[in-house]
């Protein structure tokens, strides 16, 4: 969920949620702006040589973001933020001469503010975000007037970040929370799933699949365990409902290269943000992994372990340390394919589907996060703290380019397709609740 680290697509705000949009694929465009995709991006003069600090830059998510940025914009000065100098040196060697290591402790305000001195934008990829009590990085960014992007995949953290909106406005700082692959690009797929009619959005369902841990290692494993301790919030016809985590299993067809996979309810921030920001009355999110026995293990943990234990970061870290060697061995066999499917149903009966699949989560999440960073550096984001689906976060005219940048390397990327083109058979959860 890279923030999954853990491969982030919206609907309504200021544009009719169900207006006509042609199906979009990952084939190249002839326009000059889109011709830059996959090649070097020419940033505006004032941001061309920006200093970008990537916190968690020695990890899989932060490291892949730094690599994607350095390839797209070699003129950017990339600071790899972390605690381990040896890992930092290795990443700097990978990035080349226009980078350096910055030793940072994200739990220490003074350390953060010192690291943010003379930095133009900070990427917060140092998860997990679950059970974090403060938005220390965001607060430091506002204090030092530094633009901000995070790959948060936690509902409570994202709402806490949004509470700093007035401070960001006062400081004239643009900030995006939940700006990775999912959530992030997933929210963008929603906006792209528009139809010809003026029907209103009625039901939105997010489905995610990642093979093993997606190559993201301990961070995504910790994220997954912590999410098992959170009651799932979904919305059914405008009413908030609470459900058991890793329940409500559905078998979903993710299309070519992935096929049918079992997915389970999880408490993810895009459910609440798309409900509240975009006004979708029925919203839910599900996630699944492979091999299949990992899903069984997750369901068993939810049933057998106390929720209090699964919400304790220190105890969860102990479990991660215990399971990590086994998970890494299985990952080497399972690979790290990732897929997102977004289903939108409108009041006039039109159903649309978006699918986004990539062979490597660690690469795809870097591309997705870099796409949000570039949008800010290109001036798309207004001061304030925004979710990806808010037009103040990403201007309407910048969204198609963001999606194309994020979709580099995908083997299946389609938007606004009718639902019958991807076979599914969703089931009711019971008691008339259909999320």
Automatic annotation (TrEMBL):
Gene3D superfamilies, alphabetized: Dihydrodipicolinate Reductase, domain 2, NAD(P)-binding Rossmann-like Domain
Residue stretches making up the Saccharopine dehydrogenase NADP binding domain: 52-170
This protein's name: Saccharopine dehydrogenase NADP binding domain-containing protein
């Amino acid at each position: 969920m890279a923030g999954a680290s853990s491969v982030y697509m919206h609907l309504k705000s200021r544009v009719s949620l169900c207006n006509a949009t042609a199906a979009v694929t990952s084939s190249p465009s002839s326009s000059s702006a889109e011709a830059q995709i996959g090649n070097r991006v020419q940033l505006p003069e004032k941001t061309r040589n920006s200093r970008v600090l990537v916190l968690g830059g020695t990890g899989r998510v932060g490291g892949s973001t730094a690599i994607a940025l350095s390839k797209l914009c070699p003129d950017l000065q990339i600071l790899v933020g972390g605690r381990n100098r040896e890992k930092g040196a290795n990443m700097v060697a990978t990035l080349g001469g226009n980078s350096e290591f910055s030793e940072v402790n994200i739990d220490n305000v003074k350390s953060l503010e010192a690291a943010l001195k003379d930095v133009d934008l900070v990427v917060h990829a140092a998860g997990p975000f679950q059970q974090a009590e403060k938005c220390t990085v965001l607060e430091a960014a506002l204090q030092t007037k530094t633009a901000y992007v995070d790959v948060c995949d936690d509902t409570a953290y994202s709402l806490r970040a949004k509470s700093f909106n007035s401070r960001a406005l006062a400081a004239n700082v643009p900030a995006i929370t939940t700006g990775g692959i999912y959530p992030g690009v997933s929210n963008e797929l929603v906006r792209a799933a528009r139809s010809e009619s003026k029907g209103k959005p009625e039901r939105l369902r997010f489905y995610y699949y990642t093979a093993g841990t997606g190559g993201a290692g301990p961070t995504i494993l910790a994220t997954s365990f912590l999410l098992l301790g959170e009651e799932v919030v979904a919305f059914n016809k405008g009413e908030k409902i609470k459900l058991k985590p890793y329940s409500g299993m559905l078998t979903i067809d993710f299309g070519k290269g992935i096929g049918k996979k079992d997915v389970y309810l999880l408490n993810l921030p895009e459910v609440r943000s798309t409900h509240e920001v975009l006004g979708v009355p029925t919203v839910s999110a599900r996630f699944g992994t492979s091999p299949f026995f990992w899903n069984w293990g997750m369901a068993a943990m939810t049933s057998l372990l106390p929720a209090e234990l699964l919400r304790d970061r220190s105890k969860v870290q102990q479990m991660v340390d215990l399971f990590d060697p086994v998970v890494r061995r299985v990952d080497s066999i399972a690979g790290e394919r990732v897929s997102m499917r977004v289903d939108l149903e409108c009041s006039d009966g039109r159903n649309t589907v978006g699918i986004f699949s990539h062979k490597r989560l660690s690469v795809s999440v870097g591309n997705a996060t870099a796409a949000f960073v570039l949008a800010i550096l290109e001036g798309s984001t207004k001061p304030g703290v925004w979710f990806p689906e808010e037009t103040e976060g990403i201007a309407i005219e910048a969204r198609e380019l963001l999606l194309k940048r994020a979709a580099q390397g995908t083997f299946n990327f389609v938007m606004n397709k009718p639902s019958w083109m991807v076979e599914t058979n969703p089931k009711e959860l019971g008691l008339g609740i259909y999320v």
